[in-house]
Amino acid sequence: MKVVLAYCSLLVLLLIADVNGQRRPKPTKSTTKKPSVLKKPTLSPPKFEPEPQEPTDFPPPILGPPSIFPDCPKECFCPSSYPNALYCENRNLRKVPIIPFRAHYLYLQNNYIDKVTADSFQNCTELKWINLGNNRIRSVEKQVFEKLPNLLYLYMEKNELKEVPDYLPAGLEQIRLSHNQISRIPNGAFSKMEHLALLDLHHNMITDSSLSKNIFEDLKNLVQLNLAHNTLRKMPANVPISLFQLFLDRNNIEEIPQDYFKNFANLAFVRLNYNQLSDKGLPKMVFNITSLLDLHLSHNKLSNIPMFSSELEQLHLNNNHIERVNGTEICPPHSMHDETGAPKLRYLRLDGNHLSPPVPLDVIMCFRQLHAVVI
């Protein structure tokens, strides 16, 4: 009887071991399937299709705990550590929410807003900073921003504006309107803006006729003007002489007037890459201004190196039609303010022309502070 019991016990143990052996592969199979599931985005629509380019019906994501501020729009995040800031970016918004009075800084970039109306800003007269970049804004109601007397920074790049919003507050210090479809600038759009330091209009559809003769006349303290990537054929008229940086790359500019830079006392950076400038369109001494430090004339139609001041430090002339370099001709007069008497040019780029090494000896002898020459 003991033998029979021992035999039965052994048989039961063998059956249990066999069952356990059959179950072991199952977790392995399930783990092999998991990576393919985990790779699929958790917030994607059914069937795991790519994220749509148009606004979705998903509600704005909830980030962090509920706000301690009862006036915080439900679409936004109002952190207690920054009581004057509203973070409403990347929220799939179609319109600007009602902004509370206490707000000074408003972040609305990366949404699907297509117009700006007065209703949203009627109570928030303390706003100093508005970022509406990367939306779908086509229109701005008149006098929306005029009612914000404390506004200093207005960012509306990457939208679908066809004209510069009018009635902007006079106290603005920065206006960023790049990557729109702007072809019209209303007369007086920048009137009385004596504090404006930066005006960025690059990547638009601005033509010579878009810029009236006195469009910049009130910008007495403008430091940077960016009109790159437009369709200008002429240099903009009456540019403020307070400028430090002037960017005009990728236009169709063919010539520069004789005394265009004559009264500029602070202009240090000029960029005119990718234009239609030729020797005929450049007066001999047009760039001979002592404040100029960095001059970009790449991808034009120049056959000769223009004259420049002994104070210039960087000169970019790559991809032109230059066939020879005469160091004696381009060597500027010795600076009266430099004890060594040598020009300060440190970087000279000449590649993409009809030149071949070595660098002429008279260039080396004149520009003794050169660190690099690309030829």
Automatic annotation (TrEMBL):
SMART domains (alphabetical): LRR_TYP, LRRNT
Limits of the LRRNT domain: 71-105
Stretches that traverse the bilayer: none
One GO cellular component term noted in the UniProt record for this chain: extracellular space
InterPro entries cross-referenced by the UniProt entry: Leu-rich_rpt, Leu-rich_rpt_typical-subtyp, LRR_dom_sf, LRRNT, SLRP
Pfam families documented for this protein: LRR_8
Tagged with keyword Membrane: no
Keywords carried by this UniProt record: Glycoprotein, Leucine-rich repeat, Repeat, Signal
Chain intervals for the UniProt region annotation (Disordered): 23-60
Superkingdom: Eukaryota
Leader peptide range in chain numbering: 1-21
Listed Low complexity bias regions: 28-46
PROSITE patterns: LRR
PANTHER family, A to Z: AGAP008170-PA, PROLARGIN
Name used for this protein in its record: LRRNT domain-containing protein
Source taxonomy: Eukaryota, Metazoa, Chordata, Craniata, Vertebrata
